[in-house]
Amino acid sequence: MQVIGKGNTTYILLSGIEVPSEISLGDNVLLLPADTSHLDFETAVATCKRPDDIAVVAAFIPRITAQFKIHAPTSKELAAAAWNASWDALLLSAIFNTEVGFNLQSDAEASSISAQTHLHATNLNFHGIMQTPPYKLNENEIDWVGEHFKGAQQLLEIEKFQTAVHCLASYRWHSMPRIKMAVLWAGIECMFGASSEIRFRISLYISRFLHPEDTSERKVTFESVKKLYNSRSSAVHGSKVKGDLAQAVEESAELLKMLVHKCIENRAIPNEEDLAP
Predict the structure, then answer these.
(1) Is residue 211 within a helix (H) or strand (E), and if so which, with residue range?
(2) Same domain (yes/no): 132, 166
(3) Whole-number Å distance between alpha carbons of 259 and 265
(4) What is the C-alpha to C-alpha distance for residues 45 and 47, in angstroms, rounded to an integer?
(5) Which domain holds residue 43?
(6) 3-state SS class at 249
(7) CA 22 to chain CA mean position, Å
(8) For strand 135-136 and strand 17-18, is the pairing parallel, antiparallel, or unpaired?
(9) % residues pLDDT > 70 (the chain)
(10) How far apart are CA 77 and CA 246, in angstroms?
(11) Rounded (to 5) percent helix, strand, coil in the chain
(12) CA neighbor of 266 nearest in space, from 154, 190, 173, 116
């Protein structure tokens, strides 16, 4: 990811997520609504200083629905904060099981972009071009982010959680369902560290972690995870997958989302010793 640190404030333009109002994600990052409907193609192109930026601007400006506003006391700190905001986008992707694109940096907020604005491509990998509408946060989800997002940022210091978040945020980057399953289950399995009787132990640990007080829910989850693990094994090892592989991908993504949420709410990743019988 390439970002520019200039002045004290910068904006990362986002696709794939929509918010009705300002949300604080930390001491120097705000998640804001964004509107680029006033921009025509000629004006958008005029904001670019590099040929490669033109392609990114043309692809993403019509898709922009939100933005990060990032502030820092110095240009150097601003560049670091803007780079770190990529993890905020990945966190939002994982928390809401959507794909948040973060391909453009601007020196003006979205509704004020003009021919005098500088738009810069943060990366040239065109992730975030989606046919689905942006994920719209409701009031309960906004409250949840306000309560838990800073704790989620702190959990990113733990490699297992960081891996799980990246797997859930990025599995859509692959076109093949088998690869998507492999990526999602890399995120699921890394949280628990089971090295023997993996199908049984992973199913048991997940059911106990998600439902520590509900025996009936634990049983249902235990059986459903075992079935999903069978699909995962067939997908990864090239065997014929029983049932609908696309559905197994969606169920695996939802499972990993639940695990990420539980970690965030607990402010901790699973402890295998606590979950073992």
Answers:
(1) none
(2) no
(3) 10
(4) 5
(5) 9-136
(6) helix
(7) 19
(8) parallel
(9) 97
(10) 43
(11) 55, 15, 35
(12) 154
**Domain check: are 102 and 179 in the same one?**
no
116 and 181 together in one domain? no
Closest CA to 64 of 76, 83, 47, 81: 47
Chain segment 27-77, per-residue pLDDT in tens: 899 999 999 989 888 888 888 888 888 888 888 898 999 999 999 999 999
pLDDT of residue 208: 94
How far apart are alpha carbons 138 and 151 in whole angstroms? Answer: 20
List pLDDT tens digits, range 154-175: 999 999 999 999 999 999 988 8
Distances from the Cα of 4 to the Cα of 1, 8, 9, 268, angstroms:
10, 11, 11, 34
Q: How far apart are CA 189 and CA 187, in angstroms?
A: 6
What is the model's pLDDT at position 26?
Answer: 86
Residue 277's pLDDT band, with cuts at 50, 70 and 90, is confident
Q: Is 266 helix (H, G, I), strand (E, B) or coil?
A: helix
For residues 130 and 18, membership in a common domain is answered with yes
Residue with tokens 């993996």: 198
* Amino acid making up residue 71: H
Q: Which residues on adjacent β-strands are paired with residue 70?
A: 10, 29
